């Protein structure tokens, strides 16, 4: 997508007006591993926003930054959050509609074969 697409669409990244507003009123406060940029209003620190690196999809912002964007933490995650624990996995964007979508055993997309019933179920019948 070229510059013309960003002028007329918002789903492929920040549009012209968002970039202009950000340049005038925003102060960059951080970046995440995915390359998303996080901003705070110069005059009103409670106003916060993100410019995504790629398509605009809120699930692409990590949970720590989601907390900052919603005002649940005052400082940026690097300073306000405890360090990640060894067992924590990195967050994933919403994978619905992609080839990476979770498909449990028995779903039609995975062949539609379910394990046989175990016989522990008894249907209710009225007395």
UniProtKB/TrEMBL annotation:
Name assigned to this protein: NADH:ubiquinone oxidoreductase subunit NDUFA12
Region of interest (Disordered), ranges: 87-127
InterPro entries for the chain: NDUFA12
Pfam families found in the cross-reference section: NDUFA12
Lineage: superkingdom: Bacteria
UniProt xrefs under NCBIfam families: PRK08183.1 (NF006040)
């Amino acid at each position: 997508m070229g510059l013309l697409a960003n002028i007329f669409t918002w789903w492929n990244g920040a549009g012209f007006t968002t970039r202009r507003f950000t340049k005038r009123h925003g102060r960059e406060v951080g970046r995440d591993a995915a390359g998303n940029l996080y901003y705070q209003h110069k005059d009103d620190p409670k106003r916060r926003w993100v410019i995504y690196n790629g398509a605009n999809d809120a699930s692409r912002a990590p949970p720590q930054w989601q907390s900052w964007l919603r005002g649940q933490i005052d400082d940026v995650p690097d300073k306000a959050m405890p360090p990640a624990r060894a067992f924590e996995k990195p967050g994933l964007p919403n994978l619905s509609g992609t080839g990476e979508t979770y498909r449990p055993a028995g779903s039609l997309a995975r062949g539609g074969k379910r394990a046989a019933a175990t016989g522990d179920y008894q249907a209710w019948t009225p007395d």
